[in-house]
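U., I forgot to send this yesterday:
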Amino acid sequence: MINKKRLIKLTQDLIRINSENPTGNESEIALFVSDYLKELGLKPKIIAFQKNRSNVLVTIEGKNKGKSLLITPHLDTVPVGKSWKIPAFSGKIIKNRIYGLGATDCKCNLAVSLEVIKSLAEQGAGLDYNLIFSATADEESGSDLGLIPLLNKGILKPSAALVLDADDFSIIVAQKGLMHLKVKLRGKKAHGAYPWRGVNAIDLAMKILSELKKYKFVYRENKYLRAPTINVGTIKGGDKVNVVADWCEFELDFRFLPGMSHQKILNDLKKIIGKSSRDFTIKIEGVQKPYLIDDEHPLVSGLKKSMLKYKVRPLVSGSEGATVITFFQDKHIPAIASGFGTEGCAHIADEYVRIESLYKGAQVLEDFLKRYRF
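Result:
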């Protein structure tokens, strides 16, 4: 049975451990989690792909050892910043809210996972499958020292996965892909008084960006996601006000829907740039594929039933931004994301989680794990 008082204290204890990223050091919180699991008679492993960048992994054997379900929150938080009025590492309770850095993203989900594992152990409740728990490092900076190598090296090989990193009991089944890139344009330098003698790379960039704003994506609508988008994130160029700029560079953020190809977008971008300039380079800074899972998959239907049991209205939705669920698709592992944080609280000063959401989240997760069938 879920122990509410114990769950609250556990959440506070986790908040009080600094795991900011950057600078990036999950060793202390990983040791706390590992010790907690050892007290339950389990045998967790701490795996680090770089010094102090610790991931915690444990497998709880079930009746059918041929199938496994992964639950995975992350250990790290964003940096604390300077705008907090309530001490960021206090875990202070005010009006049924627990305040602190990571309270919503994602230490509430970490606490819920640990409390559920403890509750199952106390009940001697054997599941029909192997339950894998992995609390990962480096989620806030791309997961290159966490979930990605754990999957790529075959350390994690679950049959299905539930990522615990979302708010207000949402069930994320779709996600936009992203492509980040930098475009560099070369012009010809000249005196600012004689601009016709040069080629102004900033002018070229303005023309190209104007064309990009008119670009029409080809896509199939998705009921969980908005239309594809382009964002101009940065732009800079030129050396001095009285010199014709012979260089300009800008960064673009493309978000695109399931069924779309980043290569098609890239090819179209090259054609648009080529109309204005022949001297340019494009550097791909990051690509993540879009993601979509059938909203009738057992992961989704099982979680919905557990939520309804505890009078929580499940919200099946999509993510406009990047989450780690996309990393599972290349391994052919079905995955969804859900969680029990408070919407609008991630990455803000005076971050908090509602105690009622924490408690119901633990009840929902425990019920889901008991009812899940492959």
